[in-house]
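tmp note - NAD(P)-binding domain-containing protein
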Amino acid sequence: MHKSPASVQHSRRQSSSTGRSAAASMSNSERVVLALGGAGTVGSGVVKALLDKGFKVAVISRESSRLERLQSFVSPSTKENLTTLVGDVGSEGGAETVKQALLKAVGKVTDVVSSLGFSWWQGGPPHTQSLKDLHWVVETLLFSTFVSWKAFFPW
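out:
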């Protein structure tokens, strides 16, 4: 499910006096959003919008070149609020490793938004794909979504 920057999923910690999430009562500049899939086509737009609204944003990618492309895409005035990490959330061990590196780099994460998924995959009609292609889609795209949710939700 894609979320707009305005509907970032907030942490589930509740404020005792108002019933609102603790993150919702913080200013944007105090919040750190983990943008899963943030180096992708859709995700980079989400990251840019969050940064432009004053959020601090962290993005994880398997490929440093995608993170470099993201850094050149965002507004120069917001780059200091972008943290990028190379890591693989496609396995539980990889997700845990990058989660620890993320916590060390940014401290507390207050929000998580995900644009992971495989609805964008344009390999053609399923009946024209090889079993090898299907395995790649499942292992690379579906498993990473599952493992990411398991590692980072709820935070």
